[in-house]
Amino acid sequence: MQPVRNSAVRVDRRTDEMSGDDVEDAPAVDLDALLVRTATGDQQAFSTFYDAMAARVFGLIRRLLIDAAQSEEVAQEVFLEAWQSAARFDPNKGRAQTWIMTMAHRRAVDRIRASQASRDRDTAVGIRDLPTAYDQVAETVEVRVEHERVEVAMAKLSEPQRRAVTLAYYGGLSQSEVATELGIPLGTAKTRLRDAMIRLRQELGVTT
């Protein structure tokens, strides 16, 4: 079986460019049930799960890695891991969507760290010329600094705002799903996310 199809990962790259207001709800499928069935070797269940989550997984990874080719590759790895480790998913401990989005975030961070380690080794033995090494290290430093700035800015949010942003960004949930997860009205979730994003933009000095 080929559980991961390249074409599906490329479904909608606009996902990583959308704001919270632009992301539409995921298809009305029971992702938890699909993942439980996947654990039994149900290929059709996994195919449906894949189609429902491919764009969101790719979008999250693309936001972290930037590079489209690497993002596609990591997305493939995520779904392969999901297929192989579906038996470890426990619907009593969390949602399938959060489970795979957390996996995607971890894989993307691992790729960033691996790339940096490889660059460090290459630089140590003098394989690459100085300008190239400088550009790549500078890019990695920029990513790390930006990540630290976001963490500091997140700490300035209220706990309800931070929880909502975490669910929407790391969990890949839509606004209505955030509302359901937190047990609050949709309007409250929208307001909470909007106010949080305004505060984050202020803290990060984003003017556009």
Strand content: under 5%
Low-confidence stretches: 5-27, 122-143
Indicate how many domains the architecture comprises: 2
State the major sheet.
Answer: none
Radius of gyration equals: 19 Å
Ends distance: 46 Å
Query: Which CATH first-tier class of the largest domain would you pick?
Result: Mainly Alpha
- Give me the secondary-structure category: mainly alpha
Number of H- or I-type helical stretches: 9
CATH superfamily of the largest domain: RNA polymerase sigma factor, region 2, helix turn helix motif
In the CATH scheme, what's the topology name of the largest domain? Rna Polymerase Sigma Factor, Chain: A
Envelope shape: globular
Mean pLDDT: 75
Would you list the SSEs in sequence order as H and E?
Answer: HHHHHHHHH
Q: Give the helix proportion (percent range).
A: over 70%
Number of strands: 0
Q: Please tell me the CATH architecture of the largest domain by its name.
A: Orthogonal Bundle
Descriptive notes:
By secondary structure, this protein is mostly helical. It folds into two domains: 1-127, RNA polymerase sigma factor, region 2, helix turn helix motif (Rna Polymerase Sigma Factor, Chain: A); 130-208, Arc Repressor Mutant, subunit A. It has nine helices and no strands. The protein has helices spanning 6-9, 31-38, 43-65, 68-85, 96-124, 130-155, 159-169, 175-182, 186-204. Helix 2 crosses helix 3 (43-65) and helix 6 (130-155) packs across helix 9. The longest helix has 29 residues, at 96-124. It is globular and about 45 Å long. The model is unreliable at 5-27 and 122-143 (pLDDT under 50).
